[in-house]
Specification:
Length: 111
Amino acid sequence: MKYVNPNATINGLDGVLDPSEYVRQLPALAPDLPVGARAFATDAGHYDFSSRRCVKDLALGRVTVTEDDAGMRLDIGFRHNCWKHEEDLSIGYVGVSVISTCAARICIAVS
């Protein structure tokens, strides 16, 4: 995420994930998001590390790409941390035109 600092120093601790700049940018970003994404992104619990709604400890579970007459659809599933969360998180994107990802200097694009 563009505005999240993954290596902040907070209260003398190094390597701390700090979403505060992202939270400051949200009021400007939110109006351009689809309704469901806006509701998700502006839920303050997602950025409170003690909240059951915090997304920090979710683990990638699946990525599925399907295609039909309406175009490509991308579904991403995140597994919950059983010690902290009560449910998994699924995010779906419809009308996807390009999917691009890079890992270990290998990039893949689907269009």
